[in-house]
Amino acid sequence: MLGVIVHGFILALGLILPLGVQNIFVFNQGAIQTRFIKALPVIITASLCDTLLISLAVMGVSVVVLEYEWFRSVLFVLGICFLVYMGLVTWKSIPSGQAQEKARLFTQKKQIVFAMSVSLLNPHAVLDTIGVIGTSSLHYSGSEKAVFAAVCIAVSWLWFLGLGIAGRAAGRMDPSGRLLSVLNRISALIMWGTAGYLGWSLTLS
């Protein structure tokens, strides 16, 4: 059982560690909100979305759904459109020196909607979860599969919580908002780059 736990931990950490749209959004919200508790909606939403994707991947439901080529195409198109839009919004977001004004950029409702979008409308992330975690879970059955899924989910929750805390610390160290402004530009470029990659992948399929 220890081997299952270690496998789940390393695999989940390896998937979630790279700098991506979801990670940047959680970090940014931790930085711009006036209090850490106000960033909890995005942290919880991102964690719940990952929990859903991991659960579907382990159960094999998502693999069956994505066998339909038309569904994959729709998922890619929606993801590309959203990433382009999200990149524009992020690029135009100019943090001010006043935390309250910065926090208004993303209300709790917007945090939840955008967190769901960057989690569920990013085909690259969805397919990675299915292809890697779903395939790896096939090696286990019964209690071992349940433990494997639980460890992957726990890593996701702890990671997003840590990102929110790190973002909050960065926001307090940079009250002028200059660091966040640079991060917004980087975030937008990554989103557009991801959209371009997805578009290129779509043309090859």
Describe what this molecule looks like in 3D:
It is a single chain. The chain is mainly α. It has one domain (2-16, 36-204). It is built from 10 helices and no strands. The protein has helices at residues 2-16, 21-32, 40-59, 61-65, 69-92, 99-103, 108-120, 123-137, 143-173, 178-204. α3 (40-59) runs parallel beside α7. The longest helix has 31 residues, at 143-173. The termini are far apart.
Tally of domains: 1
β content, as a range?
under 5%
* Beta strands, count: 0
Poorly predicted ranges: 96-104
The helix fraction, in percent, is over 70%
InterPro entries: LeuE-type (IPR001123)
Protein name: Lysine transporter LysE
Membrane topology: Multi-pass membrane protein
Subcellular location: Cell membrane
Write the layout of secondary structure elements.
Layout: H1 2-16, H2 21-32, H3 40-59, H4 61-65, H5 69-92, H6 99-103, H7 108-120, H8 123-137, H9 143-173, H10 178-204
Helix pairs in contact: 1-8, 1-9, 2-3, 2-7, 2-9, 2-10, 3-7, 3-8, 3-9, 5-7, 5-10
Q: In short, what is this structure?
A:
This protein is 81% helix and 0% strand.
Question: What are the main properties of this structure?
Answer:
205 residues, mainly alpha, 10 helices, 81% helix
